[in-house]
């Protein structure tokens, strides 16, 4: 198995693990952390797709029509700024669309876009949760003296 | 595709209406009475309008004469209507439903589609009812444009991977297919500019 193919499978496993965290998750303070994990996994998939593309692989075209886990869907009471969630929904739609094709670059770009928006959402949700008291205030790093 | 003896080809430039189109044409018939020059034949709820040259050539003939020239879909005989009624529906269809053109389309039966797609006849009917497969209802039967079979076969063979939102833990991942022209990577990175 080529290195890029190995990396692709590892990124797939990380992505599915991040998805499982979202499935049946309660609307708790861990939402922003789950979003951050999803962003990291999407970013890993984007890089893996790019490497696989350079090694001459195609995306294994997939049937369309699937939806993200419930807490990431519209109408589920998602915390965070609406404009960002709109961008997230558009990125989800784009990922679904390109996944039906064979262009692994296009899929990689869609994962990269999703990673970027999920990362912004994770930060925004964490800020909101700190303001509302759901999350403890962020600790400021102390400088070591001496 | 499906050029066997049982398939049936819609005449060139024909317009085919499904049951909904037929009902709407019938419901609206009072509005267009009097402008009837075309000819059509009706089989169950399927209306087939011949192309303009045929209509001109066959204008003096009855709908049943036209029906005799074309045996119609497999297993279904034409049910000719009285000429004036046929003309009424033909004109209405042209005016109301010109978008329903299936010119030159070859129609196959559910059994033929099932064989072509390696599925049961019930599955084919379910796909038509759910909109996954396009078909026209003729009485209590369905007919499927053969292009739909090619489209479905393409869709089935193309989908070898998994959707982006599948999350099962123990499922092995699909192997990555090789692109036809390997090593076409672009120097532009996906992330971070």
Overview of the molecule:
- The complex is a heterodimer of chains A (146) and B (193).
- Chain A has one domain (3-132).
- Chain A is built from 4 helices and no strands.
- Chain A has helices at residues 3-22, 31-54, 82-99, 104-132.
- The longest helix of chain A has 29 residues, at 104-132.
- The mean pLDDT of chain A is 88.
- By secondary structure, chain B is of the alpha+beta class.
- Chain B has 2 domains: 8-96, no CATH class; 106-156, Orthogonal Bundle (Arc Repressor Mutant, subunit A), CATH 1.10.10.
- Chain B is 37% helix and 13% strand.
- Chain B has helices spanning 19-27, 29-32, 52-57, 63-69, 83-96, 110-117, 121-130, 146-158; strands spanning 8-9, 15-17, 40-43, 46-49, 106-109, 136-138, 141-145.
- The model of chain B is unreliable at 1-22, 24-67, 69-89, 91-104 and 182-193 (pLDDT under 50).
Q: What Rg of chain A, in angstroms, do the CA atoms define?
A: 17 Å
Characterize the biggest β-sheet of chain A: none
Largest sheet features of chain B: 4 strands, antiparallel
Helix and strand content put the structural class of chain A at: mainly alpha
Q: List segments of chain A where confidence is low: pLDDT < 50 over at least 5 consecutive residues.
A: none
Number of helices of chain B: 8
Chain-wise SSE layout:
The complex is a heterodimer of chains A (146) and B (193).
Chain A: H1 3-22, H2 31-54, H3 82-99, H4 104-132
Chain B: E1 8-9, E2 15-17, H1 19-27, H2 29-32, E3 40-43, E4 46-49, H3 52-57, H4 63-69, H5 83-96, E5 106-109, H6 110-117, H7 121-130, E6 136-138, E7 141-145, H8 146-158
Antiparallel strand pairs in B: 1-5, 2-4, 3-4, 5-7, 6-7
